Amino acid sequence: MEEGARSCLLQSRSSLEQDIRASYLMDHMISDGVLTGDEEDRIRKQAVALLELLLRKDNQAYISFYNALVRESYGDLASLLHNSLPLVSPEAEKSFSDGGTRYVQAVLSEGGVPQRPVVFVSRPALMNRVREKLYRLQKEPGWVTVFGMAGSGKSVLAAEAVRDHALITECFPGGVHWLSIGQLDRSDLLVRIQSLCFRLEQQSQEKDPSSSLHRPPGSLEEAKERLRFLMLRRYPRSLLILDDIWDSSVLKAFDIQCRVLLTTRDRSLADCVSGPKSEVAVESGLEEGQALEILALYVNRKPQRLPEQARSIVRECKGSPLVVSLIGALLREFPDRWAYYLHTLQQKKFKRIRKSSSYDYDALDQAMAASIQVLSEEHRELYIDLTVLEKDVKVPAKVLSVLWDLEPEEVEDVLQDFVNKSLLFRDCHHRPYLYYLHDLQLDFLAEMNRSGLESLHTKVVRQYQQRYSKGPPTSGDEECLYWFRFLTYHMAKANLTQELYSLMFSLDWVRTKAQIMGPAHLINDYLEYSTILDKENSEVRGHFQEFLSLNGHQLEQRPFPDVVQLALSQPDSSEVYRQALLQAQERATRGGLYLDWVNKSSLKSLSRLVVQPHQGSIYSACFSHDGTKIASCGSSKTLRVFKSTSGEKLLEIQAHDDEVLCCAFSLDDHLLATCSSDRKVKVWNVERGTLMRMFEDEHEEQVNHCQFTNTRRRLLLATCSNDKFMNTKLWNINKPSSQNTMFGHLEPVNHCCFSPDDAYLSTSSSDGTLKLWEVSSANEWKSIDVADMFPEQREQTEVMVKCSTWSAGGRTIICAARNAVFVSVEEPALPCTHVVAIDMTSYVSSLQLWDIETSKKMADCSGHLSWVHGVQFSPDGSLLLSCSDDQTVRVWETNKVHTSSAVCLKRDSDVLFNNGDITVVAADNRNRLQVLEVPSGTSLATLQGHTRTVLHCQFTPEGHTLITSSEDTTIRVWRWRTGECVVLEGHKEQVRCFSLLTTTPSSETHLLSWSFDGTIKVWDMSSGERLQDLVCHQGAVLACDVSPDGQLFATTSADKTAKVWSSASWECVRLLNGHQDCVRSCRFSWDGRRLATGDDNGEIRLWNVKDGTLLKICSRDNKDAMDSLHGGWVTDLHFSPDNTVLLSTGGYIKWWNVEKGEALQTFYPTGANLKRIHVSPDFSTFVTIDNIGILYILKKVE
């Protein structure tokens, strides 16, 4: 044992003998191999005997004893020994602290932890400090930060710290998982987390074959939740190592309550995450003895036998492991150049002008310059070409084969030479190997070749164009990914603007890159290079960016959608549409099927920006007072701030322990308040994302709403909650408790709002009242009983006042209850027009703009697919913000949304095709039938009679008669031009649908209807007489279809079966079993030989009508992990006249090859949940309506 270590043990002996339990420590020391079983017996658990034996042992025993103290929480005693920890030679280290077991090697290999470098020197003091911090994570999640200068060996230290059997078995039995980060944008980070999740799921599946692989998460929020699930459920008590973190926003993506070790150059990064934190500084680099040992290993000598220049070289290297290794590699090649390399370092010939930095790069410059100089001239030129690489990017040899125009084997020989000289690093965890430069090496190369950078990037582009003149690579390997990711970067750096325009304004490039890499990189390209692209054509750049923004979620799907078909839904004026139409027309000549949405120009009121900031419902969103930012919160428990122009994320905070119900900016936009179901109110610093104040003791139930005052006179925060009595409070954020409490409401208060001058506060309550309070005294000023305005409903159900708002002048207050809005005028209204935005909570949530002076609706804003929770105008009134359960925040331009056409159509409709004219009938939201001429929208008739929702409507073939069925259990047969009708009554429950049945031999046309009561009824349409009454299924009858010859009809049911019936005998002739869910639709082929059935799982089955055998199953292999087979229930089916193509509707519309059961085309509507589609006789025009009332007229592209 070294003399210093022995002396320290002797000095601390009395303290150690008094406090330690020898038996606790000996287990660790036996595991490390420094104590034998016989020695354990001799010691007999006595501390005195243990220390006596320890003084006769070597350095390894001292370090093992120190580590045992750390593990058994004798931190104060371990600190007595810390400063005298001895150095351990590489030979000894190899046998002692490399983990010592195959188990450790297997765990680290599975987790992707880098192998120990070939030339390695132990740093026991640092390593033990890291391990001491890691032992603190044994019982709870937390963060250990290892920080220090570039090239100080942080990554090697992190890897070495976990190379310990006891540490892994005691603290991290779930494994150790390594992830290299570096400088990443959002899309790159998503790719890294996707890769980690895939690796974890794959390992989990190997251990448990019953677990399944999921599709890659499509967004960063989804990826974060997936990783959270994996780390907490499948890999509990595991360690995640994040290597080389640069950005706090990246680190937040891993704030998932797990155990994390991170390496970084910025010690403050961990301030942005939650949980216990500790840190280890790696500030001084290698000590002199360690650096000398590295040099000695390179030149195969003992440290004592190195020449005198060695110590001077170490001092010039300033302790950097990277620089020492570079010099060592040079000396291995030229062992007699000690004086030369010392002189090169001392001369500092390659000084650079750079911004103030905490790191000294000069020594590294000299080492790298000297390394490059010893290369052959040919290799030196090749190495300079590496200047074009991005930092933290690893490239395969095949990319450099293209760049250098060499065979792959030649390239690998060159790269091996670079690696041997420490000029390049190789990632051996990938096959084939990936190569990369340290960022300090890239800094040096960029500075050295500053004047030639453009020509170097031009060389990359030209070499790529020469190699891939016939089209880009599509293999999906590392080389392919590199070109798709960085080709645009090289073109921009080379100033090859025409090439960049041609590439990025090409639908072919968009399709191929989106398929290989997803849309995130593409959208980022249009944003990053917008300045260059706008010089050519800003409008076209906008077309492509808008197309990707609106269809990005579709481009994430697998199987990959047809980009040409998606692009055909773009406006006719779009360059994207123009290119798509040309390609569709060309492909149609070769048998391709494409649909043009011919009436899309009539689609109005679409939002300007759609952002999906959270996973889950969004309960609140608000503009900052300068209008540049939007904050949102919801069921994900997070608060997010993003730009109101682009949706770019500025801040994301894990704000509460439960759903965040509201967020609000202060007047100066420096603060954000949030309130939550966890009963807490928090105030955040917007710029730093830090918590400024938390109020957690006064509200006893969930806090529903919060708002800051509107003027600079004083800063107060109002909150309201579900508390029984003390449910409205005012807070001074500089004080720990509330300033005032308003008493008066006896039920939960849902909303509170300051008047524009902050004199009053309005509160809206579930007790049916709206109250106005004086802010200065907290006294009630006025109470308005809104429930009295619903006298017919008050006794039946409670009337809840949802929210309220003030007019700009503060003279008018508006509140909402049930489906009505009430305006209370306290003083004569201002002469200007006031506009109010209302979210109407109906089945399809709609957003409406009203003029409160004239009580007229100004506009409908359709787009949300679920309940709308909140709306807000921007400060200047030009924009409108809405948030919804559909996980989106939408921004609308107030002056550009439009009033709806005459009616808001529901999805239950029919279409009459007559010599090119199209007539549509559909029910409106008042259960009236509207007959319209399209595309003009002219109303031809309005029919009233049904008392409840109309479920189905259909024209007879000649077009003069219209038949409808309803939830009111009746069927009506209309002469729609005159309004006359016959009512058919007999069903006991709602009549879902009906069909026309032509019987033989009389050729009379009867009506076949079916209902939730499980029956089929046959009617005489003219008299209304019921002819037959059949009990068909045990469950509700959901669909029915009549064969073309009228001899058969088919029924489907919620009992998961389909049946074929004879219309002559009214008996069941075929029972079709096999569906796993409700069978919702059916259709005979025109030749009567096939029957198609569709179920609620999205599966379509094709049956042989003659014998009932199953012919094909469509969609079986195309199910998305997060969706049904068809994006929803299969609600309608149609065969083409030649019976070769089958059309189906569900969440979207699909066309199928009947013989093969393969999809030919898919059309994605703006909304969802299509119910019916109507087909022209020639199968070239298709008409349907989605769940937000948008009408689609689709025509085949010829």
Helical coverage, percent range: 25-40%
Distance between the termini: 89 Å
In percent, how much strand structure appears in the residues? 25-35%
Biggest sheet: strands, sense, closure?
A: 5 strands, parallel
Number of strands: 62
C-alpha Rg (nearest Å): 37 Å
Q: State the strand order across the main sheet.
A: 2-3-4-1-5
Shape descriptor: globular
Write a concise synopsis of the structure shown:
The chain has 1198 residues and is of the alpha+beta class. It has 33 helices and 62 strands.
Model description:
The protein is 29% helix and 29% strand. It is an alpha+beta fold and 1198 residues long. β13 and β14 (649-654) form a beta hairpin. α13 packs parallel to α14. It starts with a helix and ends with a strand. Residues 88-99, 348-361, 827-834, 840-844 and 1118-1123 have low confidence and may be disordered.
Topology of this protein?
Layout: H1 3-11, H2 13-19, H3 22-32, H4 37-43, H5 47-54, H6 59-71, H7 75-82, H8 90-96, H9 102-110, H10 124-135, E1 142-148, H11 154-161, H12 165-171, E2 176-182, H13 186-207, H14 220-234, E3 239-245, H15 248-252, E4 259-264, E5 277-282, H16 288-299, H17 309-317, H18 321-333, H19 338-347, H20 362-373, H21 377-385, E6 395-396, H22 397-404, H23 408-420, E7 425-427, E8 434-436, H24 439-448, H25 453-467, H26 478-493, H27 497-504, H28 507-517, H29 519-528, H30 530-555, H31 563-567, H32 575-588, E9 595-597, E10 609-611, E11 618-623, E12 629-634, E13 638-643, E14 649-654, E15 660-665, E16 671-676, E17 681-685, E18 690-695, E19 703-708, E20 717-721, E21 728-731, E22 738-742, E23 749-754, E24 760-765, E25 769-774, E26 780-785, H33 791-794, E27 801-806, E28 812-817, E29 820-825, E30 835-840, E31 846-851, E32 856-861, E33 868-873, E34 879-884, E35 889-893, E36 909-914, E37 917-923, E38 929-934, E39 938-943, E40 950-955, E41 961-966, E42 970-975, E43 980-985, E44 991-998, E45 1005-1011, E46 1015-1019, E47 1026-1031, ...
Parallel strand pairs: 1-4, 1-5, 2-3, 3-4
Antiparallel strand pairs: 6-8, 7-8, 9-62, 10-35, 11-12, 12-13, 13-14, 15-16, 16-17, 17-18, 19-20, 20-21, 21-22, 23-24, 24-25, 25-26, 27-28, 28-29, 30-31, 31-32, 33-34, 34-35, 36-37, 37-38, 38-39, 40-41, 41-42, 42-43, 44-45, 45-46, 46-47, 48-49, 49-50, 50-51, 52-53, 53-54, 54-55, 56-57, 57-58, 58-59, ...
Helix pairs in contact: 3-6, 6-7, 6-10, 10-11, 13-14, 16-17, 16-18, 17-19, 18-20, 19-20, 22-23, 25-26, 27-30, 28-29, 29-30
